[in-house]
Known about the structure:
By secondary structure, this protein is mostly helical. The chain has a domain at about 1-205 and about 455-488: Serine Threonine Protein Phosphatase 5, Tetratricopeptide repeat, CATH 1.25.40. About 40% of the residues lie in helices and about 5% in strands. It has 18 helices and ten strands. The chain has helices spanning about 10-15, 40-55, 65-70, 85-90, 100-125, 130-155, 160, 185-200, 215-230, 230-245, 255, 285-290, 305-315, 365-375, 385-395, 410-420, 425-435, 470-475, and strands spanning about 75, 165-170, 185, 270, 305, 325, 335-340, 360-365, 440, 455-460. Helix 2 (about 40-55) packs antiparallel against helix 5. The longest helix is centred in the N-terminal third of the chain and has 26 residues, at about 100-125. The protein starts with 8 loop residues before the first helix and ends in a 12-residue tail after the last helix.
Amino acid sequence: xxxxxxILTVLGLMLITxxxxxxxxxxxxxxxxxxxxxxxxxxxxxxxGLMRKMTSSLYYGRNFVIYGDxxxxxxxxxxxxxxxxxxxxxxxxxxxxxxxxxxxxxxxxILQANNLIKNIQxxxxxxxxxxxLSEFKAQAMTARAxxxxxxxRLYGKCYNMDKTSLGVPLVLEPLDASAQPVRATVExxxxxxxxxxxxxxxxxxxxxxEGFINYxxxxxxxxxxxxxxxxxxxSLAAAEEVINSGEYSLYANDEWVDSWSGExxxxxxxxxxxxxxxxxLETGSLGYYLLRLYKVTGASGWFMASxxxxxxxxxxxxxxxxxxxxxxxxxxxxxGSSLKYVGGPAMAGDKGSRSAVNVKVIRLxxxxxxxxxxxxxxxxxxxxxxxxxxxxxxxRSPGLEPATEATVTIDMIIDEKSKxxxxxxxxxxxxxxxxxTIEFNDExxxxxxxxxxxxxxxxxxxxxxxxxxxxxxxxxxPAIQSQQNPGY
Length: 488
């Protein structure tokens, strides 16, 4: 088998990469799984390794975040032929531009989580469990839920579009090398996501854990998942539990810009740590992909804000979020370059590095905007809550009038989310979930960028809004060959 590579060979390779030696807990395909993790110290190494693997360039360290904005209309490109521009152009096929790195890396992480879960479960079954081990297992289960949520949105149709269509294979145990997992339905994947979250929640700490998963990470993810399922009552309840916990607080307006130079701030619910010599992608980092070309040596400037996003922000020139933007490579007047991942305007931060900047996976401000949307979409809309939660974030635009019960709309909430989470990878998935038309700013540079693999506008009926299963995967796993996404 040349590509149970998705979840087996790649997992082995990670153990011989010099920068990842601290991950050296043998996976199930290298030794008997019951001997891989035998105590809390082993489990701690494994959970550290799992968090580290999630910062790969193929996942939250760069590509997954860029994907979520490059395809959602908030990003534009100056020219083609640069890194990851096939996201923007939708130049996808099974043999080229398939995005197979997502499949490989996320399943790689899932297998590591599975190994940890199974070994701790065995210790518990043998009477050798502990509260510490149970918490590590719960962290791995919550991480697995996040990974499947990301996978099913990359490769499956939206839950509220066709939940009976194919999602991704559900791999919940360490795999034998001869395994040929097949795709589960979108609904089945979401069911497993919620099961993992429910099973894990009672064992997670309510204390804030820097760089790791706690109870409120679990609840925040549940708020996201329920929102994508159009279960607005449950989404609102989960978001409000996080908001009302008192464990986190929104930044004041004069704190927001500087928050990007620090680690684990008051809004950070789940943040993946990246340090110099430990996952630092340097000039290949997320920050350098967005930083203006020639701003610093190695900057790429490959993606910048679209005119549509800039026009949205320009509704209020006093919006404090302009402070995290800089001139992009198109001119000395256009603020289209994000500084979120280079340590803010000072381009340094707590670690003194422009590239070793943590990735904020879930922030408290998202919970407010999820709560606002969910409250507005309840069977009996709660307009007071919708406006109130929106205004807590909208105050970052002091020049705009606050929303009221009479004026609050879904457009206001979604526009606010676009402003707040620019370059954080949320926009595209929201646009698909909401069944909105996405318009691309191909002509903002003269001559215009010529795109041949999509139209200027598209919606979720376009088959390339979800990725193909790569040809290598189809060749390696005959059982999945008949399950390619339609159109590919």
